[in-house]
Each structure stands twice: as structure tokens, then as C-alpha cells.
């Protein structure tokens, strides 16, 4: 799911930084826009709009980009990352996150500076379904954990009946099944989401600083 929309200045700045990071990686790897599109399965126009800060990608599209470029997904969010080592410990203090906004969701990405993670934790803010614009279900390799922090959430699963969750309730599922989240009430809802990769990528390019 992608979107091109009118943005406020902070959101525009965030998308511009993300686009600059993608262009930097593509150039460093000696790839053209067409190369990235062919490797990731995204349209050339989509890759171009992301690089120009005109389009935000959802998590599954970022996964496609990372797989196509053979890099850690965290490298798309943070230029200077540190590999998470066996026995390692990382602490995120309150307010320490990377903000990523799409048309439908606002994500607060936790530990974006850690590469080679097997999990991607994030907080999310969901608007009511009537205020969201879905074109398709989201799906990606791995497993997903959802915990409702505030409000009520409706989870739409491809081929299954919707699941409604209240604050304090959670859901664990195979994220290869298409899924969508939305607030089930008139107010925004807050969630914690943890996505796991389907195993660490066996082929990950080493990006120089």
C-alpha cells in the first residue's frame, strides 16, 4: 500500500529523509531505479516517488525493498546502525523512536539503529476505519504480535472474520495472511506491534558508512 498526499512540513521532511536514504543506498550499490524495481517487485514510479519524498511505504513494501536490495530493513531507516550481537542489550527511553507516517498509520519505530534484529517493534496510532483508505490487504513474511494499548481495534484478516480487540487484549498471527488494522471506535486507538522476520536474511550486503 502506498500513498501520495499533501503533507505538513514535518511529515514531508521525514519522507524526504527516507527518500534520500534510499537513493544513497541505491547509488552505493550501483543500481538504477529500474534495477531496484525489478529486484523488489515495486513499480519504477513507486521507487522514484519514494526517493523524492512523495510517497510513504507500509511495512510490507519496506520488506520488499530490503529483500530486493539484500539489506537489513533497519538500514532504510537509519544510516548508522549497529548490528545486534548475541548477548546484547538495548534500551529505548521514552520518546526515543523514529516516526514514520503513511496515509493510514502512524508508526513509532523502536530501535531503528539496531540492525540484524529478528523482531521489529513499533507503536502505532490507528484512525477509525471510515477515515482510512485501504487499497489491499498488507502481508509479509514472518509472524506478528498486536497488543491494544488504548481504545478498541478491529483487525481485518483475509479469508477470516474480523477480530475486535479491546485495551489489554492481543493477537498473534502469521503475517503472510493479509491483514489490516483500524480503530473500532470514533477515536484513535494505540497499539504495540512486533513483526518478526522469517529468519535473518542469509544474504545481506555490507553498506559502508
TrEMBL record:
PROSITE patterns named in the record: HTH_CROC1 (PS50943)
Instruction: Please give the Gene Ontology molecular function terms for this protein.
Output: DNA binding; DNA-binding transcription factor activity
What Pfam family is a match, any one? Answer: HTH_3
SMART domains per UniProt: HTH_XRE (SM00530)
Query: What UniProt keywords apply to this chain's record, in alphabetical order?
Result: DNA-binding
Report the CDD domains cross-referenced here. Answer: cupin_XRE_C, HTH_XRE
The GO cellular component terms are: cytosol
The family database entries (InterPro entries) matched by this protein are listed as: Cro/C1-type_HTH, Cupin_2, Lambda_DNA-bd_dom_sf, RmlC-like_jellyroll, RmlC_Cupin_sf, TransReg_Diox_bact_type
Tree of life domain? Bacteria
Check the record and name the SUPFAM superfamilies matching this protein: lambda repressor-like DNA-binding domains, RmlC-like cupins
Domain named HTH cro/C1-type: residues:
22-76
Its protein name is: XRE family transcriptional regulator
Amino acid at each position: 500500500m502506498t500513498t501520495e498526499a499533501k503533507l505538513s512540513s514535518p511529515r514531508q521532511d521525514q519522507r524526504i529523509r527516507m527518500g534520500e536514504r534510499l537513493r544513497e543506498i541505491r547509488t552505493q550499490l550501483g543500481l538504477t531505479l529500474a534495477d531496484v524495481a525489478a529486484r523488489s517487485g515495486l513499480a519504477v514510479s513507486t521507487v522514484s516517488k519514494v526517493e523524492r519524498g512523495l510517497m510513504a511505504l507500509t511495512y510490507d513494501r519496506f520488506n520488499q525493498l530490503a529483500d530486493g536490495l539484500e539489506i537489513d530493513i533497519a538500514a532504510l531507516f537509519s544510516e548508522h546502525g549497529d548490528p545486534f550481537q548475541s548477548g546484547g542489550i538495548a534500551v529505548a527511553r521514552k520518546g526515543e523512536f523514529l516516526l514514520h507516517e503513511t496515509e493510514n498509520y502512524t508508526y513509532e519505530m523502536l530501535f531503528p539503529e539496531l540492525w540484524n534484529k529478528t523482531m521489529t517493534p513499533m507503536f502505532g496510532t490507528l484512525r477509525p476505519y471510515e477515515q482510512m483508505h485501504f487499497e489491499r490487504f498488507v502481508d509479509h513474511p514472518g509472524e506478528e504480535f498486536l497488543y491494544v494499548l488504548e481504545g478498541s481495534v478491529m483487525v481485518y484478516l483475509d479469508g477470516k472474520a474480523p477480530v475486535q480487540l479491546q485495551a489489554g487484549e492481543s493477537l498473534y498471527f502469521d503475517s503472510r495472511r493479509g491483514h489490516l488494522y483500524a480503530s473500532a471506535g470514533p477515536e484513535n486507538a494505540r497499539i504495540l506491534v512486533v513483526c518478526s522476520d522469517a529468519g535473518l536474511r542469509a544474504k545481506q550486503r555490507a553498506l559502508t558508512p
